[in-house]
Amino acid sequence: MARRTRRVPTVALLLALVCSTLALSGGPATAAGGGVVDLTGAVPAAFAVRPGVETATVTGATPNAPLTLLSPANERLVTLLADVKGQAQFSYVPTTYLTYQSGSGDPVPTTDGGTLKPGSYRVVDESKAPVQVSPTFTVLGVDDHPPTSLYTGQTLSGVPWAITGGALPGHATSEGFGYVTVRDGVTVSVMVRFPDPRVYGDGPYPTVMEYSGYSPSDPDNPQPGTRIANLLGFATVGVNMRGTGCSGGVFDVFNPAQYADGYDVLETIARQPWVKGGKVGMVGLSYSGIAQLYVASTRPPHLSAITPLSVIEDPWFQQWPGGIYNGGFTKQWLAERDREATAGGQDWAKKRINGGDATCAANQVIRSQNIDFEKFGRALEMRPADADERKLSDLVGKIDVPVYLTGAWQDEQTGSRFGIMLDKFTKAPVRKFTMFNGRHPDGYTPLVLSRWAEFLQLYVADQVPQVPPLVRAAAPAVFEQEFKVPGLGFEPDRFLPAYDGNYAGARAAYEAEAPVRVLFESGAGLPSVPGAPVARFETTFPAWPPPAAQAHRWYLGPNESLTDAPSAYDSVDRFQFDPDAGAKTYAPTTGAFDFLYPHIDTSWEPLAQGKGLSYLTPPLAQNTVVAGMGYVDLWLRSTATDADLEVVLTEVYPDGNEVEVQTGHLRAGHRAVDQARSEGTFIEHRYDAASYQPLPDGELVNLQVPLYPVAHPFRAGSRLRITIDTPGRDLPLWSFENPAYGTEPVFHEVARGGAHPSSLVLPLVTSVSGIPADRPACGSLRGQACRTFAAVTNEVVSTDEPPTTAPPPTAPPASSTILAPLEPVATDPSLALTPRFTG
Questions:
Q1: Sign of CA dihedral 663, 666, 668, 673
Q2: Rg (CA), the chain
Q3: SS3 682
Q4: Rounded distance, CA 55 to CA 142, Å?
Q5: 154: number of Cβ within 10 Å
Q6: Strand 561-563 vs strand 710-714: parallel, antiparallel, or unpaired?
Q7: Burial 580-602 (b: 16+ CB within 10 A, else e)
Q8: For residue 674, pLDDT beyond 80
């Protein structure tokens, strides 16, 4: 069969991360220019330059004027053609001098370069006679803080917010809306709400900030974190990121200017007289959860604590999981951010403009400098070097305030890579992590909401945690309305009456608790409502990954088996690339909000014969918890020059049902392992252009496909299953843009046994107690699809193994087989092209 080829990008974009603030785009790049500008006889520019954090914005220029950024030595770095309003924003410097048309919205040309670094620059317009040049200006870094007078000189007012919602009678919602000026002069919109004074009295109040590019400063529609915190007695400040809503500046996703803005706004809030103790916490889930981590990494002096829920670990990876383009949720999310960031892209901002808000109207003008971030991110097929500047695993080590973080292992939107950074919060004095099986919005369910409230009361309000009686009484009706489950409520107050009036004692008792809490089998804890956000049991660990976890290796074997010892025989199984898989998901097409509800109709397809490989253990002899990050260690070859791979870990019940546990993805060309970031059973790859390697023709290569972090109990009698196939069909919202190979079929081959013993490696904990004897009903676990087990006959293309009469499994056997003792596996992450275990 002819070997299929695939386009391999050869040029790396050494830019900022996915969605870097590159307002440089449109039209072909020109090769002319570069060199040093002679400024003899130059006159002061008629345009203005406003430097910011890794950005510089030009206004007042002649439309289409060539605006050239100069180094301190007057070298031409890049030229932007001003948009029709005479604007341009510099935030990217190419390796080779180029000219772009700004303001077109298209992504930048593919080239080498990097973000605009802090330092001294000038801008020149050489089309004018005489030449016009700006004064020297300084581009700021995140840590270039303004004088504190910026913060003390601004006053914010708030509106008392009824516990039932809305401004109190006699007050206008607009009383809480305003703007904060940040260090580069941009104004960002804020909305301040005080808790109901009829319940909580007069201020000052413990205060939290919710910060994102959604609509947190929308006066009429508070975000979920804001609503709940207000109910619990906190003053709240919703803040729109620059370039969104009524805020000024050019929009970007997770760029350093946003971190710095968050720092400035928080420090301004802390100086307000209505803020208790002069300190501010942060709240929010998803976008506003992720933003907390970035802002906290800048270490605002008056930040008291953060509570990030349902977060990511690396924005580039969200768009390119395993180096494969996510054509599902991430693509849609970025496209929606692009749409909402356009001038007047959010309805509430248009409403304010129509009502006479001149600041909001003026802040829309610069939006012409936005680019299409979805298209831009798609161009970053090879991970750029500057992506590390926004990789949260590399930033959270700077956070020096208490952290409460929760996440779902099966989060259908952001995934579970948050789990790989939990051991990186090394400077946070208090770390409380709660993880569970479940869905993206579950951080706001009663499953974990009580502990969220505890944390905020301890570290922002400085009080013994207690859910106000009025809130506790009203909660079941509210929860039933939101989650469609009767009988939900807050946990009992854990620190009363034992610590009544003893804040120091309550805090000490809280901090003595284990930092890692794992909830199991959420969805099966309320038998009357399958899928309700209630867990069946829980355990704690002193750290994540659990120190007690031991790596165990199973080897891919014949007849769909996973065995404790490798076969002595060389064998090769194969499956056919499935071109239709990438676009397939198993979620219904209803709104994302439905993920709050207990039951979601899904259609998780069985593995199609010949389109994947399947391997199962014998029935387990003891209860075992998989806890951590595993991988599938493969020997692979292909009829193509690359292979997109998906692995799916499942549990097969004795009754014939199969429950999805976790997945993993890798483009085989990205098999080079990042040794510095890999540890134990966690395998990280480099994904950059220099490390990319096409598959050699006809040769087996060794690679490791990581499984995302997870914790899941496997009961005695169940079997572990791993399937290997084309990415797609096995997730609710992530779809994949797999290669287009042409009309001829492509086959991927996996060797097992002999000199090429492919295997599955998982971290196991056998000491977890309290696992209920009975298994959850099929379909009841939140975030975990269930289907009837269907055996697969793996296609064997070559083997030295003697013939066997053993049939492939058609249903799970009832007997138990004792596993070999759990033993650590030596994992040397440098072995990207050699076997990890030779038998």
A1: negative
A2: 28
A3: strand
A4: 11
A5: 18
A6: unpaired
A7: ebbebbbbeeeeeebbbbbebee
A8: yes
| pTM of the predicted protein model | 0.92
Nearest to 33 by CA among 73, 83, 82, 67: 67
Tens digits of residue pLDDT in 551-610: 999 999 999 999 999 999 999 999 999 999 999 999 876 554 477 889 888 889 999 999
User: Minimal CA–CA distance to 651: which of 625, 628, 633?
Assistant: 625
- The two counts, helices (H) then strands (E), for the chain are 14, 38
CB 436 within 8 A of CB 408: yes
Task: Decide: 764 and 649 in contact? Cβ < 8 Å.
Answer: no
Distance CA 100, CA 497 (A): 67
The secondary element (H helix, E strand) that includes residue 212 is strand 205-212
Furthest-apart CA atoms within the chain: distance in Å: 92
Is the Cβ–Cβ distance between 783 and 437 less than 8 Å?
yes
For residue 69, the tally of other CB atoms under 10 A from its CB is 25
Q: How far apart are CA 252 and CA 338, in angstroms?
A: 9
- d(CA 104, CA 328) in angstroms, rounded, equals 26
**Peptide bond preceding 824 in cis form (omega within 30 of 0):** no
Q: Which residues are CB-contacts of 147 (< 8 A; sequence separation ≥ 6)?
A: none
Q: In angstroms, rounded to a whole number, what is the distance separating the alpha carbons of residues 145 and 272?
A: 19
pLDDT tens track for 406-416:
999 999 999 99
Give which of 438, 465, 436 is closest to 453, Cα–Cα: 465
Give the amino acid at 250: V
- Tens-digit pLDDT profile for residues 285-336: 999 999 999 999 999 999 999 999 999 999 999 999 999 999 999 888 888 8
Quote the tokens at residue 80. 């932007």
**Between β-strands 43-44 and 132-133, what pairing exists: parallel, antiparallel or unpaired?**
parallel
Distance CA 232, CA 236 (A): 11
Is residue 710's pLDDT more than 60? yes
Q: What does the block give as tokens for 574?
A: 């194969």
Find out whether 623 and 674 touch, Cβ atoms under 8 Å: no
pLDDT of residue 32: 41
- Residue 451 · residue 493 · CB < 8 Å: no
E strands, 609-700, where?
612-616, 624-628, 631-638, 644-652, 657-667
Q: Would you state the structure tokens that stand for residue 634, as one six-digit string? A: 């493969």
Q: SS3 sequence, 280-304?
A: EEEEEECHHHHHHHHHHCCCCCCEE
